[in-house]
Every structure is written in structure tokens, then in C-alpha cells.
Design a protein that fits this description.
The structure is a homodimer. The first copy, chain A, has about 250 residues and is mainly alpha-helical. The first copy, chain A, contains eleven helices and no strands. Chain A has helices at about 15-25, 35-40, 45-70, 75-90, 100-110, 115, 125-140, 140-150, 155-170, 180-200, 205-235.
Chain lengths: ~250, ~250
């Protein structure tokens, strides 16, 4: 007769948080070669523009992603906290949202905001990566969807470095276009704090902790693949897909 | 008072089919640099293996894709014709399916079929591209889902060239592993003929024809992006995502 193996005990909250931070240290896209090029001032004007065009699709989908999470939640307290993510991006009475700010970044980089908004400049592979984020939050349990948002834990340092790098190294970029990143310096830590507390509270078994870590890793792969797609088309090897009307 | 513009008349069946064939001529993945390398014998053993590992995820999802299409159909005649696609891949009593044949290809290339079957070797970006195909058939109308399958129109020539190239240029590959492609030489034309007749019959407006062409183009981008992901990780620039357990 075989003895059943007892399930592994859950990690302590401190250890669980440390494992999440280790995912970010290893796989967050701040270490992607395209971001390193950006922060070293080595992107051409067209390459930085292409990043703004493609990353816009991510910005565009964030409120939809958060609405899916909102629709999964049954707790009014959770929804009350989460709903600000949607208004942060869509805007509200008297307050400009992140999507508009991103389009101002596009204009500051010499792009036509309406062309960016048309999404025709989004590479197919960039679209597939971002849509995988929608699929992840739609198909996994609430706590895993929340865990996937915890890349926000790693964002503030990247945002701070980015504002400095863009101001210093890309003088042709109008500085007024950088408000998006300045806003995220405030929003991301607030959001991450809430999300982290929620995930730690609700992942009380080792299995649920592991699933949360897997969701966070997949989210890192989504952000990484988005940059892979831009790098492939605009840096190395520099190939665009055929019959893609964003090339013209 | 503005005069309304009359809608464009539909293309004739001949013209509509010609437009679909033009999508294939421009964007089918037979022209992707990775396939050109493959057919010129320029892939290393590891690069060809990586293609087999990643393309397996596409094979793995095909029956699910076809089950989603089956579930959209209301016509028993349609379902009776379409169901053979699922048994072609899953197999049936006394008949080996395409998934098993692909795993025999993996073994013929020196891979462990169970390792391939575990999907751990599937690059995140390859997964996102293939999952976009599932999303396409799940979220668009039946006729557009069928149109997206019409890359089969362009497959037989690629399959015939591939069998010749793999036999001649990769002598270390066991020829018994090539049955998958030989099977597709028979199945793809039969499936494409049915799908093409269905799409031509049901797209009777210019708008529906254009939507069918858009679905076919997106499908070409999915196949193209799958090869982009393999090329990026295993050829140029040769970078794999961090915390991806297929790298070891």
C-alpha cells in the first residue's frame, strides 16, 4: 500500500511575498533588452514611436481587463477599491484618464493620436500577447486574476527611471507628454498594496499560492512577449508580418 | 441633405475566391524566413526540434478549435462534414490521429514525446498566437471561423515541399516520422474544398466577404507569429523569456 504524500504546508505571508518579488526580479520586463535600449537612449525615433503605438493596445485593454475582474467580484468592498483602476484609465468628470494621457504621449512623440487610436499600428503578435491577458483574467479565478496584476509591485522604479531617461535622452520628445508615467508613480503603489493584501489573505494553501505565482509569471511573459514583438519588427531582425497595414 | 453611398456590390464567387487566394499568396507562412531556412536545409537539429515542440501546441489545439466550430453549427450536414476534422487529429477506432503522428515526428527527431506532450517547451509567444486562433473562432460568426480555416487551401504545396525537404536535407530525421504530412496531403484538400464552398455560399454581401477575408488574414498572422516566436528564441536574436521552464 502506498502512503499518500501530505500536501506541502503554505508559505508564510513573508515567504509568499518574497517568492512573488523573486518572480519580478527574474522576469519583469524592466530587464528586457528593448527597455534597456530605451533607458540607454539607444532607440531611434521610429523605434520609440513603435513602442508607443504597440503599448497603447495594452493601455487600451487595461480597463476592459479590470471590468472583467470587477464582474468576477462579489464583495462590495473589493469592487469599491478596484473600480478606481477603471476610472484611472478611462478618466472621469474633470479628471483625464490614462488612455488620453497616453495619446498625449503619442502626440509628444510626433505621432497622430487618431492613427494610434485606430489600432492599425498594433503588431499582430503584440495584439495576441495583450489579448492573452484578457483571456487570463476571464478564465482564471478572481484571486489569480488579481495576482496577475501584481506586476504593479515592480512598476514604480521602472516608471521613475523611464521619466528620467525619456527627459534626458530623447530631447525631441515633448516633456508635457510624460504625464502618464507621473500618474502611475502614484496609482501603481496604491493598487499594488491592495492587490497584494488581497492575494496574501486569500491564498492560504500552498497550491493556491503556487497558482497565484504561476499567474504572475504568465503576466510577466505577456509583458515580455509584447516587447519581443516590437523588438522583432523594429530592431532585430526587423521583419514585419505581410499584409499588415501598420507597416505603411 | 447628404446622399447615402450605396453599399458596394458583392464580388462574384470567382473574384471572391481570387481575393482569398491573394491573401495566401501574400501572407501564408510558406514565405516566412524560418520556413525558407527549413526547406533549404539550414536549420540546426535543435532549431528543427524547437519547431516541432512549438508547432505541437497548434496541433494540440486544432481539435478544440474544430469542436468550437462544431458547437456553433446548427446544420447536421455541416456538422457531419466538419466532424472528420476532429477525428483526423484525435484519431478513432483503428485509426491513428494527427496528434499521435506529430508525437511520432517528435520521436523521429530525437525528442521525448512525453516532454513535447507536457507543453512545457511551448514558448509563451507561441502559446499566445495559437490561443488567438481559439479566440477568433470562439468570438466570430460561424462563417468567419470557417473562413479562418481556409489556409488549408495553401497547405498541400507546402506539405509536399516539406516532406521532400525533410527527407533530403535532414538525414538524421527518421523518415517514418513524416506520416503526419503525408496524411495532410489528403485531408487538407478535402477540408478546404468543403470550407471554401461554405464560405462562398454564405458570404453574399461585400461586407461579409470582407469580414471573411479579414478572418483569413488574421489566421495568416497567427501562423506567421508562431514562426516569429520560434525564430526570435532559436535563430535571431536568439533570446528566450526569463522564468520559462522550456529553456532548460
Amino acid at each position: 500500500m502506498s502512503e499518500s504524500v501530505p500536501p506541502a504546508p503554505p508559505d508564510s505571508p513573508e515567504r509568499f511575498v518574497a517568492r512573488m518579488r523573486a518572480v519580478g526580479a527574474a522576469a519583469y520586463h524592466d530587464q528586457h533588452p528593448f527597455h534597456l535600449m530605451m533607458h540607454q537612449g539607444r532607440l531611434t525615433r521610429r523605434q520609440l514611436q513603435a513602442w508607443i503605438e504597440n503599448r497603447f493596445y495594452y493601455q487600451w485593454r487595461i480597463p476592459k481587463k479590470d471590468a472583467i475582474i470587477l464582474a468576477k467580484a462579489n464583495d462590495p468592498d473589493f469592487r469599491r477599491a478596484w473600480i478606481s483602476r477603471i476610472t484611472d484609465h478611462d478618466g472621469a468628470e474633470g479628471r483625464e484618464g490614462g488612455i488620453r494621457k497616453w495619446l498625449r504621449l503619442a502626440a509628444a512623440a510626433g505621432l497622430d493620436p487618431n492613427d494610434v487610436l485606430s489600432l492599425r499600428r498594433v503588431l499582430p503578435a503584440a495584439r495576441f500577447a495583450v489579448d492573452a491577458y484578457i483571456d487570463l483574467v476571464a478564465t482564471r479565478p478572481l484571486v489569480e486574476a488579481v495576482a496577475s496584476s501584481l506586476t504593479e509591485l515592480f512598476a514604480p522604479e521602472l516608471m521613475a527611471n523611464r521619466v528620467m531617461a525619456l527627459e534626458r535622452l530623447y530631447p525631441w520628445l515633448d516633456r508635457a507628454g510624460l504625464d502618464y508615467f507621473r500618474g502611475r508613480l502614484v496609482e501603481a503603489p496604491r493598487d499594488a498594496e491592495f492587490g497584494l493584501a488581497y492575494v496574501v489573505k486569500h491564498c492560504t494553501t500552498r497550491e493556491s499560492q503556487d497558482r497565484a505565482l504561476a499567474a504572475l509569471t504568465t503576466k510577466c511573459h505577456i509583458l515580455w512577449s509584447l516587447l519581443d514583438a516590437i523588438h522583432f519588427a523594429y530592431v532585430t531582425p526587423g521583419w514585419m508580418p505581410p499584409l499588415w497595414n501598420g507597416a505603411s
